[in-house]
């Protein structure tokens, strides 16, 4: 188990020793992880044919998640978030998870990938289920394994029967697989299923819930955010990264050693399962002064490990930042000066990979003077 910033960072940089090919679950690679981007490595000399190459897989989607591509989504996502949050603010109280955190990524990722609207909430449930299978057995794990087969089958049908919107990333991935090139149909299914739906939905649901809880727990930081928002100061963009450092929504991952590895004088035998604790590293006092405090704007926050690092650093990071900022900006624009969580009614979600909530009622307080809205 690696827990220090220094050791985690070094392991993530050394994919040849700390390989992802064994999957990113505690147990030896479950079948549902076969061919997903995160369970692959760059090709090595001597690899047998058919071993997926990380570079081939990631290239199929990377362009759709670049800063420039995500910036093109900014206007529509912000306008829509402004309207959604406006309704919640008018209501005065709402369940953060059901009314907001599930709604935003389901719509944003759904539109980006081109998923059929009718099925989107089902995908969000499946994504949570898939994530729950990554770690030690959780209370829901036994009930979800069979649903994953159904999910892959569903994605296969979408790709085969033209169920994905033509302009979406999903259709582009399937069409790349049908052309001459390194991608197979199985790769396309794994990418749409694993890299877009599973990786892109449940993580952000948790992030958005934690974003409001941070604003509730640290009112001074929320005051600063509102001031930055009012003056158009980009300093507020650092909120998401401090959140991902502080809360580590995806707090752990796994690697398998390909050879004997040495960490700080300790020997890890070859073919060992290594637990990588992003969450612990993000609170490492040797790396982060006042590590247990939420301080927006801290020095070097972009180097946190809440989005991983190295070869497998999160491709959805710019989208996750856009979704979080769009939502927080909307609350600021609607004049929300305080959040009060109803903790007695909150329900923690038993999930082995993503830290989050199933339910978190919240009440908002409005400031008296109404400033002009900035979308
Ligand atoms: C706040 C939300 C998110 C968090 C906390 C998060 C966290 C992470 C982490 C920690 C990793 C690295 C895991 C490892 O190396 O073991 C990762 C990788 C990845 N993430 Fe995210 N993620 C988020 C949002 C997204 C979104 C929105 C998408 C896509 C729509 C996405 C797609 C991916 C993919 C495809 C990878 C694998 C990249 C590779 O293997 O090269 N993530 N994410």
UniProtKB/TrEMBL annotation:
Kindly indicate whether the keyword Transcription belongs to this entry: no
Transmembrane stretches in the record are 158-177, 189-216
Recorded hits in InterPro entries, A to Z, give: Cyt_P450, Cyt_P450_B, Cyt_P450_sf
Q: Does the keyword Ligase apply?
A: no
- Keywords assigned by UniProt? Membrane, Transmembrane, Transmembrane helix
Quote the Pfam families the UniProt record gives.
Answer: p450
- Give the GO molecular function terms: heme binding; iron ion binding; monooxygenase activity; oxidoreductase activity, acting on paired donors, with incorporation or reduction of molecular oxygen
Family (UniProt): Belongs to the cytochrome P450 family.
- The protein here is known as Cytochrome P450
Instruction: Look up and give the organism this protein is from.
Output: Phytohabitans rumicis
Species classification: Bacteria, Bacillati, Actinomycetota, Actinomycetes, Micromonosporales
């Amino acid at each position: 188990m690696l827990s220090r910033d220094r050791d985690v960072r070094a392991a993530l940089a050394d994919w040849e020793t700390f390989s992802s090919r064994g999957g990113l679950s505690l147990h030896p690679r479950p079948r549902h992880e076969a061919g997903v981007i995160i369970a692959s490595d760059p090709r090595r000399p001597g690899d047998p044919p058919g071993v997926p190459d990380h570079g081939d897989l990631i290239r199929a989607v990377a362009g759709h998640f670049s800063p420039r591509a995500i910036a093109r989504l900014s206007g529509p996502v912000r306008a829509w978030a402004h309207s959604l949050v406006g309704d919640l603010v008018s209501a005065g109280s709402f369940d953060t998870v059901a009314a907001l955190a599930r709604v935003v990524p389901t719509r944003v990722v759904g539109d980006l990938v081109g998923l059929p609207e009718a099925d989107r909430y089902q995908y969000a449930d499946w994504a949570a289920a898939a994530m729950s299978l990554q770690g030690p057995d959780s209370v829901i794990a036994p009930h979800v394994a069979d649903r994953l087969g159904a999910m892959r089958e569903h994605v296969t049908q979408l790709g085969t029967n033209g169920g994905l919107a033509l302009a979406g990333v999903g259709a582009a991935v399937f069409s790349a697989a049908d052309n001459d090139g390194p991608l197979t149909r199985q790769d396309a299914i794994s990418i749409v299923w694993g890299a877009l739906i599973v990786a892109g939905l449940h993580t952000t649901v948790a992030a958005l819930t934690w974003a409001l809880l941070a604003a509730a727990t640290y009112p001074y930081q929320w005051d600063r955010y509102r001031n930055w928002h009012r003056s158009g100061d980009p300093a507020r963009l650092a909120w998401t990264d401090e959140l991902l450092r502080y809360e580590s929504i995806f707090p752990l991952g796994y690697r398998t050693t390909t050879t004997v590895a040495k960490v700080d004088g300790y020997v890890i035998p070859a073919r060992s399962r290594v637990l990588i604790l992003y969450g612990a590293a993000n609170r490492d006092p040797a790396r982060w002064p006042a590590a247990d405090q939420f301080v927006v704007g801290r020095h070097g926050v972009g180097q946190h490990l809440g989005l991983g690092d190295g070869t497998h650093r999160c491709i959805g990071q710019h989208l996750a930042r856009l979704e979080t900022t769009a939502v927080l900006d909307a609350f600021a624009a609607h004049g929300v000066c305080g959040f009060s969580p109803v903790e007695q009614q909150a329900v923690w979600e038993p999930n082995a990979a993503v830290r989050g909530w199933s339910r978190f009622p919240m009440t908002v307080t409005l400031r008296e003077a109404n400033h002009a809205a900035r979308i």
